[in-house]
Amino acid sequence: MSGCEPGEPSALPPFRDPRLPVGARVDDLLSRLTPDERIAMLHQYAPAVERLGLAAFRTGQEALHGVAWMGPATVFPQAVGLGATWSPDLVRRIGEAVGTEVRAMRARDPRVGLNVWAPTVNLLRDPRWGRNEEGYAEDPYLTSALAAAYTRGLRGDHPDRRRTAPVLKHWLAHNNETARDTTSSSVRPRVLHEYDLAAFRGAVRAGAVAGVMPAYNLVNGRPNHVSPYLREHLRTWTGQELVVCSDAGAPSNLVDSEHYFDTHEEGVAAALLAGVDSFTDHDQDASKTIGRVRGALDRGLIDASVIDTAVRRLLTMRCALGEFDGPGGEDDPYADPSGAGFDTPAHRALALEAAEQTIVLLKNDGLLPLSPSVTGTLAVVGPLADECKLDWYSGSLLRRSTPREALAARLGADRVVFVEGTDTVRLRTAGGWVRVPSGAAAEKRGPSREPSLNPAHATIRADLPPLTIGDTPTDLALADWGGGVCTLRAPSGRYLTVADDSFVRAAAEQPGGWVVQETFALERHGDGHLLRHGGTGGYVCVAAEGLKVADRSRAEVFHRHVVERGEDAVARAAAGADAVVVVLGNDPHINGRETEDRTTLALPAAQDRLWRAAHAANPRTALVLTSSYPYAVGDATDALPALLWTAHGGQAAGTGLARVLFGDVSPAGRLPQTWYASEDELPDLLDYDIIASRATYLYFDGAPLFPFGHGLSYTRFGYDGLSVRRAGEGAVAVECTVTNSGPCDGDEVVQIYMSAPGARVPRPHRRLIAHRRVGLRRGEMMRLFFTVPLDEALGFWDVAHGRWTVDPGRYEIHAGASSTDIRRTAALTLDGPPPAPRPVLRRGLEAADYDAADGTVLVDRSKVRGDAVACGDEAVGWLLFRACDFGAGAAAVTVEAAREGAADGATVELHLADGTPLATVAVPPTGGRYAYTTVRAGLPTSPAGVHDLHVTLRGALRLARLGFSG
User: Fold this and answer.
1) In terms of pTM, does the model score above 0.90?
2) Strands (E), 384-534
3) What does the pLDDT read at residue 10?
4) Which entry of 196, 247, 332, 885 is annotated as an active-site residue?
5) Residue 212 vs residues 115, 172, 202, 225, 281: alpha-carbon distances, Å
6) How far apart, in whole angstroms, are the C-alpha atoms of residue 403 and residue 467?
7) Which pLDDT tens digit goes with each residue over 54-88?
8) Is residue 247 annotated as a catalytic residue, yes or no?
9) Which of helix, strand or coil describes residue 551?
10) Which residues of the chain have pLDDT under 70?
């Protein structure tokens, strides 16, 4: 801070004076801004205000696992890999390194922003989600703990200044890419409070978060960008001024795709009123957003105070980043004008440590660790064996380490045999062979990786000659990624791709880009194939200048000639080796990524054949799955002696894997989500009710392939001395002893779960409430202590009374090595009065507060707030409300409902659990989905006392509430 005394005169305006409170500085600056300048600040690209010396400011620097989109930077493992570390300490240090590199890179390029959009805290509810790689875990506690750690590292520990300002993505209940901007997640109150909100709540309360980004989807029929939960929940969790940044293009979606509002003025006004502060729309063109805000003002949809509130939040964030401090930056503890914090030796070592800690040993029958003295020759095979893949939110690699490179460095290149396992093919047309011109052997380049604010604008180089037809074929490496999607690579190492001029060239170093231009599909046509281009949907034809993409009517028929099958090459290499490491998995840009969900958990058939071929030739075969998501690999699990999984591990992935394979490091990664035996065990991708659908480890009733929290070690750990007790009125204290009883040093991830046997409502089989990753030397014993808030440990959302509650009764606390590998259990009994029934005569029943439902969806009660219940795909829905107290007797019911159409009938039927009918209430047309009416009906049979109430909905109505009177 400045050395000036408060009484000394200063030429600085108050907003420049770091001695003043932030609120006073922001108020001063806001008062100096004109109305037009304030409106302009609402766009992602806020312009400079030269008369006040304010620089331009951009919200949104991607930094999920390293600085992204701005050129080379340290690349750490994918977020799901960081989730597998179960290590808040490591994740905090990575956040600190990423934040430090943001500052260092900004010193070289002022376009690098300090408002970072990371981490992603969406829960990994369904492993088919295309963005599975971006989340930490399927569990809200673990996700929140890691998000709090990463944001703490990004923010820094200074009480007043921020290294960066992290924004959590994506609010709320967002786990599908399929029609992601128009689908609605039906989220009942228990799932909302216990699951989706919980992941955000803990991270925000930890204090380092600067804001959130709403998701593209709708929740209960209402777009997230006008979510009342921003006000009702998010802003109640902290006293800080949180900034809400829209997702790209989402403000326009309110009208264009979602049709939720009739005009963009209404949409932008509603978003501002809901709490959105920064509008990411139309890329760098702010004029449309500015025009819409002005239009909303002119129509009286908002007033100037609404704009001031949003701008004040944005200025508060900028002030905390040191932007308004005096010249020289001496008051900013995170200033790095020389860029010294970039690509440091410490960051490189941290990237290696992270790569090691992400690796999960799924199975080991004694093959691992490998011994250099016993392993004379090692076959390293598979399409990921010599790759260091990036994803959409990666920076460019400063350095890289592939499994082949690392293992060759470990053993010597002469002892490592590498085979990629792709098919070598030639393509022939009626006019001759497909060939890559020799001019295409120039310097390797791919989709532009120059620093860009929007890599979706990267273009494919078009200066190389297109593929042609001739007498001499070119051998192409065909990689089949499943689902009929393949890539083709020329001998130069470059992938076939399509530029803006539609010609096919060998011009891409890797598949990539917002729309991947390097994928093709071979569609059977007669005795040959048509070659469909994935990026454009067009078909490859032969033009005078070479191969290009056109419509299907011009498609050429190609005949595929296989020179060598990948599995044959793999079998040959495996047969001559002492051991085999097969590296399979996904390319993060293909078949499961942002905009594209997976349809299967299976390995691509071509990859499945590779491990089978290797194992048939050599039983000493280990399978390494390098992927952004789980696979269903039951056959491999049964057949192979060793299985490992790692997310794409960043720049040090290969070295980290080699060190684990040879025992330099005992693996201690743990699965952050359930691995299912088949996609048949999953509910519909759009079914967000994890309680009713019995989804995630919390409720899944089957036997997973590998459970949440699973991971093996090269050593053994014993558990003993578990105890649990109340710690005052508001906490639970848990203790246990862990001993390394195995042959080597290693880390153990101690996991503490709770269960509530005999609970009055469905509770999780087990729920993670605490954990710790600890390093223990061989023979070392450690006593661990955990203190967990009582409501977080044992509570749930009580829909009967609309509050978080902890029931009296018996609870079990479990300590173990996974959600199913429980080593010790202790009981805790809470005394107290029994839960009260629903006071329906006094409070009535909110329709959304049901205990169970079938055939219904939750919808928006109004465009501003509240939920209602409607029938789903069928015209009949059913609700159950347990333990309704009708007192001395209810004589009448009131039904608050809306009915948009006049066709067919619409009724609400009530009966008791024993089948006793109470009433059938007809709902008349009300003139609109938000036009509610209240219909009263007498109850011929007057229920008294406590009963379960069953409600049947018929027809196109929206039920908001039931009321009862005596």
Assistant:
1) yes
2) 396-397, 416-419, 423-429, 432-435, 468-470, 476-480, 486-489, 495-498, 504-508, 520-525, 528-533
3) 56
4) 247
5) 11, 10, 13, 11, 16
6) 32
7) 999 999 999 999 999 999 999 999 999 999 999 99
8) yes
9) coil
10) 1-10, 327-329, 439-453
